[in-house]
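Incident log, support desk, overnight shift.

02:14 A customer reports that sequence design results differ from what the structure should imply. Their input is reproduced verbatim below. On-call engineer (initials T.W.) acknowledged and began investigating.
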């Protein structure tokens, strides 16, 4: 029974985050419609308050969410006899600078343990918030809401997640959370976002790559528009308890330019009920 209530509390917390995220996404949709025409594809790069206008809906076209490192296409990790090719892992050239994540020995062993317990142990399967930087390269779009000045918002389709980018001096987060606390500043035409205070429970991909919970852990993201519809995205990971040195990933974000582009509903808590509660539900084997 104690385990049941712990699970219930965890999923209730996710539902609370999802609810707040849905409101943020609705707010994002309302304000994104006010961006200049050039910000929605075509023409020269738009500017807002003297800075590049990042407003829009963005998505990656890669397999980083499956595996950040280079990898071949692979059979479905579970139930290939039922899922066949529909759940196979797509190959990828990798997004990690140098190709290999520089784990410390003990952390590498933990990554391998995570891999063996996937996909069930992946927080994504239970619909927990994805953390940073993973939220950026999941196979769901996200929306950037940028005003003339002041803080920014990033709203994600997956789990209705969202985060505020506080455009002020980096501070010390009051608590650790799934998405951490993000502080932004402009370096020329590049938006630099530093995220601190993540809880160390999220994974970086479905293979089991991860960050630790530590005051020294930080993710530094760089968003640089290369033209009206593409952003060069870079994320540098610093986590001395897990990695032998800081390391970087990079990829391209593509703007959705189709008419009426918007974030759709993917509040996934109900989809995870059987996974999370399956062993405690009454009559779970009843037909």
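02:41 Re-run completed on a clean worker. Output:
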């Amino acid at each position: 029974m104690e385990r049941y209530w712990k699970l219930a509390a965890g999923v209730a917390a996710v539902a609370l985050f999802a609810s707040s995220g849905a409101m943020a996404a609705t707010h994002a949709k309302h304000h994104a419609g006010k961006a200049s025409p050039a910000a929605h594809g075509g023409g020269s790069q738009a500017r807002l308050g003297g800075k590049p206008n990042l407003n829009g809906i963005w998505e990656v076209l890669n397999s980083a969410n499956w595996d950040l490192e280079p990898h071949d296409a692979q059979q479905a990790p579970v139930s290939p006899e039922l899922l066949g090719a529909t759940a196979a892992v797509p190959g990828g050239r990798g997004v990690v600078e140098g190709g290999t994540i520089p784990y410390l020995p003990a952390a590498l062993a933990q990554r391998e343990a995570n891999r063996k317990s996937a996909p069930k142990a992946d927080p994504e399967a239970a619909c927990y918030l994805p953390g940073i930087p993973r939220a950026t390269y999941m196979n769901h779009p996200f929306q950037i809401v940028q005003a003339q000045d002041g803080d920014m918002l990033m709203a994600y389709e997956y789990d209705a997640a969202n985060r505020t980018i506080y455009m002020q001096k980096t501070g010390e987060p009051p608590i650790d959370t799934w998405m951490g606390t993000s502080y932004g500043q402009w370096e020329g035409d590049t938006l630099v976002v530093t995220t601190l205070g993540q809880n160390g429970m999220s994974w970086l991909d479905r293979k089991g790559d991860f960050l630790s919970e530590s005051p020294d852990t930080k993710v530094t993201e760089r968003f640089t528009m290369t033209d009206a519809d593409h952003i060069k995205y870079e994320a540098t990971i610093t986590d001395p308890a897990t990695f032998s040195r800081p390391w970087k990933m990079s990829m391209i974000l593509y703007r959705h330019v189709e008419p009426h582009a918007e974030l759709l509903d993917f509040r996934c808590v109900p989809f995870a009920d059987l996974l999370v509660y399956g062993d405690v539900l009454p009559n779970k084997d009843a037909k």
